[in-house]
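SAMPLE LOG
Freezer: B-3
Tube label: C17
Construct: single chain, 106 aa
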Amino acid sequence: MKRFIPTFEEYLAEQADASFAFDPAKSTDQDPTGEPLKSIDELTPGKEYVITIDGENHKNMGYAGYTDGYHIFNEADHKEEPMTFSDEALGKVIAAEGITEVKALG
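STRUCTURE (predicted):
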């Protein structure tokens, strides 16, 4: 009788086909970040941003949204503490062109 649910090892083997392998010929050196945001209204929950404050880049920052008077950004790998900004503080970062959205390449 055939088993319908694959083992974890079988699943990994299925996922390791050529479509998931790294192909240097298809790589690009295109910058994945867009133009700096011009306004708080351009932020989209769930999108990834690079936040630059005083020359220090905070990458992989996902915008969690606005709650209790603060805009919250969480780092994808949880290596950094969440960043919170009031409207005024975030406005200053945006005015200094310190927030750029990471765009999908393709």
